[in-house]
């Protein structure tokens, strides 16, 4: 007998409440959006979890038992309170999720905007910042008509329709050829520019009105200057002795000068600065989302009085509700307890778990973004597909194992086979009459192919992007044979006797299914692929951060809640270090490379 699940879902409680209020399975099914059989199954699962009978099934009418009526009494008030809490949580979440559009003129953005945008993205990963570079006047027009919520410009007589918050100030410098006499000075007096050919940024860059006023105050004419729209062109002209450029220091100009020894930058005196400001439309109703971005851009991390939330995100490379998602969310909760903060879970689905790992490799290596990786991504993608999205040995840092899961061969209840020998005999008698699954592009797909090769059988193959729909089809009789990870809905189906396990595709029998033989027991020593997941981070993560994270991960995995949850789902916490796990990955590459003929 399989152990009873201890989990009670919100949907099960809503089903019970609806049955108590309507006295009808059909009315409940219509209200909740389930089938009548699903309503009945939901109640049975709830009864098993609570170990009490909730519905009196001895009458034709649907009636709650005494225990059911006692539970329904306070249930409505509890669910109403929960709905209130969830509504508040959703309102709070809306302030950290969505798109915010920014517009900036090219001459101002590079000096400070990339770093501050990255700060916002790390602090609020669900906020998507969308940037467009436009001329100064077009930035203001874009904000005024609502095409962008935020503008970044050089403050230069802004119209009254805008509210402005200063972000930074930049002093102007003189840029000249290394052969120019100015190149030997520590500073250039503005009066000395009176007889020089000047190179200036045009009106599209912003700040030109104030610069012209400064120059005119020193009797410097600007009618016949060289006007360009890009820093790079101004620097190139100065290098070729076509004049001297008067440009705001820092940012793009400094980067260009650093890469060009033929150009020198000299301080301008008296000091003249331009102010870079964040602008929004005055009197416009800002959303909480926009306000949060504005606050983060104006007052970046490290500023006095700033309270910065550095969030940690766990990337799960499979859909919500599947085995990986269940393990990932339980791990994230335990890691949050260790870190003393909430840890977010982000589902990045695609390419059999590869896209999620790809997302981690492209994240900032600050320890705030980590993710799950299965053998599909760490072993089989390279051997079979060679997408080239990342190199498992160079583009990731393996922090730790996460969970070990045996893989198991399942058949549907409609298949008249009680052991592996009977299944093989039936498939041999009826080639191409049985349907098996090719799940994603990892071990579960390869196991099916290798099993047929080693048993001289032939089945039709149906592709599935994930394990959840494949298990569902197996329980419905739409699929006959399936290799699955023993976790999530596969474990639920086994417990509910909706499918039949015939072989463990691993090295050892499992305590959950002690009577089910291993592949070695069945004479198929090659048909073995360890299931489970490890925890990865970007390759450039520092050694110090790696060791700290590994300790925090192991503390989470040793927690009683994780141990109980993982074992309850058919797995065991995997406390291998990152180095130990990568040694295992290398061995698997070698073994499967020989089996698949790729080495």
3D architecture notes:
- The protein has 599 residues and is α/β, with parallel strands linked by helices.
- The chain has five domains: 10-94, Arc Repressor Mutant, subunit A, CATH 1.10.10; 98-165 and 276-298, D-Maltodextrin-Binding Protein, domain 2 (3-Layer(aba) Sandwich); 171-272, D-Maltodextrin-Binding Protein, domain 2 (3-Layer(aba) Sandwich); 312-404 and 532-596, D-Maltodextrin-Binding Protein, domain 2; 407-529, Periplasmic binding protein-like II (D-Maltodextrin-Binding Protein, domain 2).
- Strands 3, 4, 5, 6, 7, 8, 9, 10, 11 and 12 form a ten-stranded mixed sheet that branches. The protein has a six-stranded mixed sheet with strand order 14-13-15-22-16-23, sandwiched between helices.
- β8, α8 (208-217) and β9 (226-228) form a beta-alpha-beta unit.
- α1 packs across α3, α2 packs across α3 (36-50) and α12 runs antiparallel to α20.
- It is elongated.
- The two termini are 44 Å apart.
